[in-house]
Amino acid sequence: MPHSCPRKRRTGRPRSVETDRAILDAARAALVDLGWGRFTMGDVAARAGVAKTTLYRRWANKNELAVDAVAVLFDELELPDRGSLQADIEDVVLQFGRLLEQPETKTALMAVVAESTADAALRERIRTAIVDRQMGLVILGRARAQDRGELPPDPPDNDGSRAAAETVGLIFDVIAGTVVHRTLVSAEPVDTVWARRLATILLTGLAGLAGWE
Questions:
Q1: What percentage of the chain exceeds 90 in pLDDT?
Q2: What whole-number distance in Å separates Cα of residue 70 and Cα of residue 76?
Q3: Is residue 78 packed enough to be buried (19+ CB in 10 Å), middle (13-18) or exposed (0-12)?
Q4: Are 190 and 94 in contact (CB under 8 A)?
Q5: Where do runs of H (alpha helix) occur along the chain?
Q6: What sign does the dihedral 140-206-174-94 (CA atoms) show?
Q7: How far apart are CA 100 and CA 123, in angstroms?
Q8: What is the structure's pLDDT at 23?
Q9: Is residue 49 scored above 60 in pLDDT?
Q10: Residue 49 to residues 19, 34, 95: CA-CA distances in angstroms?
Q11: How far apart are the C-alpha atoms of 86 and 105, rounded to whole Å?
Q12: Coil, strand, or helix at residue 136?
């Protein structure tokens, strides 16, 4: 009988989930305490209790680390099925608002976004690590609404796929942009009433607010 090829053993130590979590927590704390200008890989390593080489094995630079430290918070957002598109939108808007009200989320997000205005690579990192991943919530919510008959199905052709992608992007921009402005610029609360009004505008336009209380 021919000898089977031996399975290759993995070399090196596997990444530790606990170490990753400690580093990302430390990175957000450093952004809050120091701001972007004094934020360094060395400081994060000291806070996390690991060697600086441990950070560089995972992230090439502080830009990547800072964005991933913010992105992991946004990964906590979920879209439970509340039975209607209106209720689904209200739910995720309230979750997003609560997330942005946390000091570490607010400070860390504003730091990386401000820095990204002059750094194309950082902008792309934000898009792939945060925006593209969270776009999945819009895709899921829209698909559920189509299954319920609340939204029409997409045309079965390339034009339909392109239009669907553009619609998903627009929905994401409207919801994310509005909630970020409400929380970080206007410093107003994202409460149940406000979330309901935003969902109403998205689904019915401004006319839907006529006589609304």
A1: 69
A2: 11
A3: exposed
A4: yes
A5: 17-38, 41-48, 52-58, 62-74, 85-101, 103-116, 120-126, 132-148, 158-180, 192-204
A6: negative
A7: 19
A8: 97
A9: yes
A10: 9, 18, 32
A11: 26
A12: helix
Say how far apart CA 30 and CA 124 lie, in whole Å.
22
Tokens, residue 41: 């890989």
Angle between helix axes 103-116 and 62-74 (nearest 10 degrees) is 130
R_g (Cα) of the chain, nearest Å: 21
> Count of CB atoms within 10 A of residue 154's CB?
17
**Is the Cβ–Cβ distance between 39 and 111 less than 8 Å?**
yes
- Asked if 97 and 176 touch (Cβ cutoff 8 Å), the reply is no
Report the alpha-carbon distance of residue 156 to residue 168 in Å, rounded. 17
Residue 27 has pLDDT above 60, yes or no: yes
Amino acid letter at 17?
A: V
Instruction: Please name the amino acid found at residue 204.
Output: T
Q: State the amino acid at position 139 in one-letter form.
A: I
Place of tokens 């992230």: 59
17 three-state secondary structure? helix
Q: Which of 25, 45, 49, 27 is nearest to 36 (CA)?
A: 27
